[in-house]
Amino acid sequence: MSTLHRRHRGDLLFALGVAAGLALVAWIVITMQGLARDLSAANAARDQLAHQVQGLGASPVAGPPGSRGEPGPAVTGLPGAPGRPGRPGQNATGKPGPASTVPGPAGKPGADSTVPGPAGAGGASGADSTVPGPAGAAGKDGTDGKDGTDGRDGAPPASWTWTDPLGVTYTCTRAGGGDDAPQYACAPTGPAAPTDPPTSPPAALDPRRRT
Predict the structure, then answer these.
(1) Who's near 185: CB < 8 A, 6+ residues apart?
(2) How far apart are CA 134 and CA 117, in angstroms?
(3) In the chain, where are the structural domains located?
(4) Facing residues of 162 across strands?
(5) CB-based burial of residue 11 (10 Å sphere; 0-12 exposed, 13-18 middle, 19+ buried)?
(6) Distance in angstroms between the alpha carbons of the first and the last residue of the chain
């Protein structure tokens, strides 16, 4: 339940309580006025009866006209029936209470701003800072090259060497074929291969079959 709802509910209950209190006071005042009128009428009737008794030559039991008896013992009567509920009072908005000095809970962090802040003032001259500065802006893209004019296709190598698992070095030279499918001839140029055949066939291919 929100604070405003609770405040409105409290104001309504307060107004109903005030209205009930006013109705009770009004009922008491009206009842007292009625009792006063009844007492005045009873006293007037008593005085008239006393005059009649005296006119007949007798003495009134309640005393001469205008006399009043001693107040009787205080007796508390039974409570009366409850009165009707009063009308609801008008909704009144109370004054706002004093501002709270208790800090509220911490809010959630906001989204990162996309607006760069102002540049800070220049620092005082001193030793060089060891804190790296912010990264610079990205450079502009270069101009695209023209097809077939700015670059040129590379050519296959004229020769190359390689060594097989037995330690024999071979040199391969260009033997024909175009640049798209060049052919090479390979010959040993390093130490000669052993005369005894190896116990297991070499894993490398015949150099004459390499392309």
Answers:
(1) 172, 173, 175, 208
(2) 13
(3) 1-66+82-87, 157-192
(4) 170
(5) middle
(6) 86
Residues 177 and 183 sit within 8 Å (Cβ to Cβ): yes
Cα 13 to its chain centre, rounded Å, is 32
Q: How far apart are CA 170 and CA 210, in angstroms?
A: 11
Judged by average pLDDT, the poorest of 31-35, 77-81, 148-152, 186-190 is: 148-152
Separation CA 147–CA 94 (nearest Å): 82
Kindly give the residue spans of alpha helices, DSSP state H, lying in the chain.
3-55
pTM above 0.90, yes or no: no
Assign residue 57 a region (left: φ > 0; alpha: ψ between -120 and 50; beta: otherwise). Answer: left
pLDDT of residue 94: 60
CA atoms within 13 A on the CB side of 169: 6
In contact, 45 and 62? CB cutoff 8 Å = no
Radius of gyration of the chain (CA): 61
Query: 3-state class of 187 per DSSP?
Result: strand
Dist CA 162 CA 190 (whole Å): 10
Angle at 10 between CA 5 and CA 13, to 5 degrees: 125
Burial class (CB in 10 A: 0-12, 13-18, 19+), 27: middle
